[in-house]
Specification:
single chain; about 140 residues; flat
Length: about 140
């Protein structure tokens, strides 16, 4: 294939793509992946349950697992002190601690976000209503003839 022909084919393909727009769409209601299309659902009870699980199970469990690994790794690092294995374990342990702290921070932020969701939805609803109330429908200034 000659270079000019290749360039022409590329230009034609680009022109076809630019002149055509395709939007992704939702699955039809009741079909695979479908359901209540266009309906935002938020369950206060489910959010409260998720917050409870985060607060009472997941976050304390993360603390416990991280602490257990700290104890085990610390003693192993001491046993291998002076060896390359000991310094390698020490580096791996430091990275583990960073990862555990990052996870704990993320879980805390998730819990806070779930706790504040209802309030945020209310603010959005009030904001939308406030802006909708400001829309001039044009009826006040018209007179019927």
């Amino acid at each position: 294939m000659a270079w000019d022909e290749w360039e022409q084919l590329k230009a034609e393909a680009l022109a076809r793509r630019q002149g055509h727009m395709q939007l992704n769409s939702l699955a039809p209601a009741g079909g695979p992946g479908g359901g209540d299309v266009g309906t935002l659902k938020s369950s206060t009870s489910r959010k409260k349950a998720a917050v409870k699980v985060l607060q009472e199970d997941i976050r304390p469990g993360t603390d416990k697992a991280g602490g257990h690994a700290d104890e085990s790794s610390g003693s192993t690092v001491r046993e291998f002190s002076g060896w390359d294995t000991g310094s390698g374990l020490k580096g791996a342990h430091a990275e583990w601690e960073l990862q555990v702290e990052g996870l704990k921070g993320r879980l805390g932020r998730d819990q806070t976000a779930l706790e504040q969701t209802k309030q945020h939805f209310q603010y959005v609803d009030h904001g939308v209503k406030s802006r909708a109330d400001q829309v001039d429908t044009g009826r006040a200034g018209r007179r019927e003839a």
